[in-house]
Specification:
heterodimer, A: 199 residues, alpha/beta, 4-stranded antiparallel sheet, 33% helix, B: 465 residues, 5-stranded parallel sheet, binds iron/sulfur cluster
């Protein structure tokens, strides 16, 4: 997992609430056998509409998604996080996220930032006026900066540390891999092995 | 301190424990199949990681593989992609695989025990919820998600929160015609599909001890249907004898050491379970489900329940919805229900003893004209064994279809599916809406009831013949 300390980029306004994971990535895209390449399924139904904000050239390079309330409800599919990341998003800002989606995102290294709705509205207004405005999501300082405005947010210390170190669950276990090696050195020899194959 | 069997196995596999963190648990065996492993391997590839212990990992193809024409390329493109991907991943990461056509191919939970890779005292995981099957050997075995599959591939461990323990005691002697499947269906009907949530169940008592290893696998297999992540049975002489003759059984001095260890794998006499439940074997009867979850079951002699008589509002609503979906009227005797399809197979009841038990009833009989019967051995090895014993002839003469090994109609991911409104008597483990095909209606039964039903065309037990 990539470390997330601070990220600066442009942002895209998604003025919709209750965006469920079926809308983020429809079920027909789930048959893939990879964790990558889901970007074409991201918001697939909405992207048929040329007016949809993701189709507007001024927002093509955006890396921060600013969404309405209750983002990520519905099915628990991990693919929703993969699709947003595959598309290039590093962070999503909303005033409320669905629990499972938020859990999946923070496990997978996509920073979900909770700001009060009034601040979300202010960011929307600013990036609609100037799509090239630079937005900084600073995990170290726990704030979002845009122009002269500073919007603070909260995140528990353990998750923040894990994201700043770039540690997914596997990364965390690998930090303790010496314990695993030590355990293996005392495993009894009668425990079965699949290799070499016997039949 | 006194410990239960599950606590002993847990304790022996702790790699690291720290205050306020889950225990890091070592995994002795990781079983893999085509449907839940692709993204895990892809995750390893993206992070530049290796499979830490290919020698503790084994793959087979089972969930979506066809049971006909297995020498031809797989016709369904999604299945083909998943199977091809598994083969490539195993080749790239050095994992042993048993592919379609190989004598050791089959349902992952049939393959592990028959190779002797499932042994007492182990921790075993697989990206499939019926991994609990392996608990029959006194192993701690449970299903995991795709992210966890990746975690085990990379580290051979999992961070886990210690489960609570539940004892289910079944004492006495089972009446004639009552099988392991009836016992577990009765248990689930008693404690409900959520009754085991958060627990590891240990099945105990004289009726459990009296079961064969294959019967014990049937019981442990369906632990998940009671909400428990794992179920296990203390190993005994039957277990040791079963493992002893298998290809991966410990040899020489290793056998002696293993046996000495396995004999310690019992719950201490004064150990405490968080919950204890008891059933009397004498009171059990052939069981069948009437609804759309495995807890909605009754003895075969009963009638379809009347939702109006169910006190609990949630349960009443669930029963009403189930009867509508199943196309059943309250009060109708279960034995009058006509079925269209008989499915004999799955990791619950697709082993050689299941096929033998059904064949003994079908021998010399003809199937009811109105039904079709699919016999799908749990593994290619089981199929070969059955053919050696002439069971295939019995099934074919009876009018059944003799198929190749796989999950098949248990989950209908391959072409073996129920049509809309079609009704089955199935030896599998889930009767959820659409599980065996969109709009299909499933009655879960034992192999004996499946056989008797195939003869009469209505839900029946061998005693009705
Ligand atoms: S037979 Fe059914 S329950 Fe068993 S592993 Fe296959 S799909 Fe799962």
């Amino acid at each position: 997992m990539e470390k997330f300390v601070t990220h600066t980029g442009t942002a895209i306004p998604l003025r919709r609430s209750n965006v469920d994971t079926d809308q983020i990535i429809p079920a027909v895209y789930l048959k893939r056998v990879t964790k990558s390449g889901f970007e074409d399924g991201l918001f697939a139904a909405w992207r048929n509409d040329p007016e949809f904000v993701l189709n507007q050239p001024q927002y093509k390079a955006a890396t921060i998604l600013v969404a309405g309330v209750d983002f990520g409800t519905g099915s628990s599919r991990e693919h929703a996080v993969w699709a947003l990341q595959n598309y290039g998003f590093k962070a999503v800002i909303s005033s409320r996220f669905a629990d499972i989606f938020r859990g999946n995102s923070l496990k997978g290294g996509l920073l979900t930032v909770i700001l009060p709705q009034e601040n979300v509205e202010k960011i929307w207004a600013a990036i609609e006026e100037d799509p090239t405005a630079s937005v900084t999501v600073d995990l170290e300082a726990k704030n979002v900066r845009l122009g002269n405005e500073v919007y603070p947010f909260e995140l528990d210390d353990y998750t923040r540390w894990r994201l700043m170190e770039g540690l997914d669950d596997i990364g965390l276990t690998l930090k303790n891999i010496d314990f695993v090696t030590a355990y293996e050195s005392s495993r009894p020899s009668y425990k079965p092995k699949t290799l070499p194959a016997r039949s | 301190m006194s410990k239960t069997l599950a606590e002993k196995i847990w304790g022996e596999h702790i790699v690291r424990s720290a205050q306020g963190e889950p225990d890091l648990i070592y995994i002795d065996l990781h079983l893999i199949h085509e449907v839940t492993s692709a993204q895990a391997f892809d995750g390893l590839r993206l992070a530049g990681r290796q499979v830490r212990r290919p020698d503790l990992t084994i793959a087979t193809e089972d969930h979506n593989t066809p049971t006909l024409n297995i020498d031809l390329p797989i016709a369904d493109p999604v299945s083909k992609l998943q199977v091809d991907t598994l083969r490539q991943n195993c080749a790239e990461f050095g994992v042993r695989i048993h592919s379609l056509g190989d004598a050791e191919q089959g349902i992952v939970h049939v393959v592990g025990p028959q190779l002797g890779l499932t042994q007492p005292g182990m921790t075993i995981v697989c990206g499939d919820s019926h991994t609990s099957t392996h608990g029959a050997f006194g192993a701690l075995a449970f299903g995991i998600g795709t992210s966890e599959v990746e975690h085990v591939l990379a580290t051979q461990t999992l961070p886990l929160v210690r489960p609570k323990t539940m004892a289910i005691n079944v004492d006495g002697v089972l009446p004639d015609g009552v099988t392991a499947k009836d016992v577990i269906l009765a248990i689930i009907a008693k404690i409900g599909t959520g009754g085991g949530q958060g627990y590891v169940i240990e099945y105990r008592g004289s009726a459990i001890r009296a079961l064969s290893m294959e019967g014990r696998m049937t019981i442990c297999n369906m632990s998940i249907e009671a909400g428990a992540r794992a179920g296990l049975i203390a190993p005994d002489e039957k277990t040791f004898e079963y493992v002893r003759t298998k290809p991966h059984a410990p040899q020489g001095a290793d056998w002696d050491a293993a046996l000495a260890y396995w004999k310690t794998l019992t719950t201490d006499a004064d150990a405490k379970f968080d919950v204890e439940i008891s059933l009397k074997a004498e009171e059990l009867a052939p069981f069948v489900t009437w609804g759309t979850n495995p807890g909605q079951g009754l003895p075969l002699n009963a009638s379809v329940p009347n939702p109006a008589e169910i006190a609990d509002i949630e349960e009443r609503g669930a029963a009403e919805r189930a009867l509508t979906y199943m196309g059943l009227e309250a009060g109708v005797p279960l034995k009058s229900i006509k079925v269209d399809t008989i499915f004999l197979g799955s990791c619950t009841n697709g082993r050689i003893e299941d096929l033998r038990a059904a064949a003994a009833i079908l021998k010399g009989k003809k199937k009811a004209d109105s039904v079709r019967m699919l016999v799908v051995p749990g593994s290619a090895r089981v199929r070969l064994q059955a053919e050696e014993e002439g069971l295939d002839k019995v099934f074919i003469d009876f009018g059944a279809e003799w198929r190749n090994a796989g999950c098949s109609m248990c989950l209908g991911m391959n072409p073996d599916q129920l049509a809309v409104g079609e009704r089955s008597a199935s030896t599998s483990n889930r009767n959820f809406e659409g599980r065996q095909g969109k709009g299909g209606r499933t009655h879960l039964v034992s192999p004996l009831v499946a056989a008797a039903t195939a003869i009469r065309g209505t839900l029946s037990s061998p005693a009705d013949l």
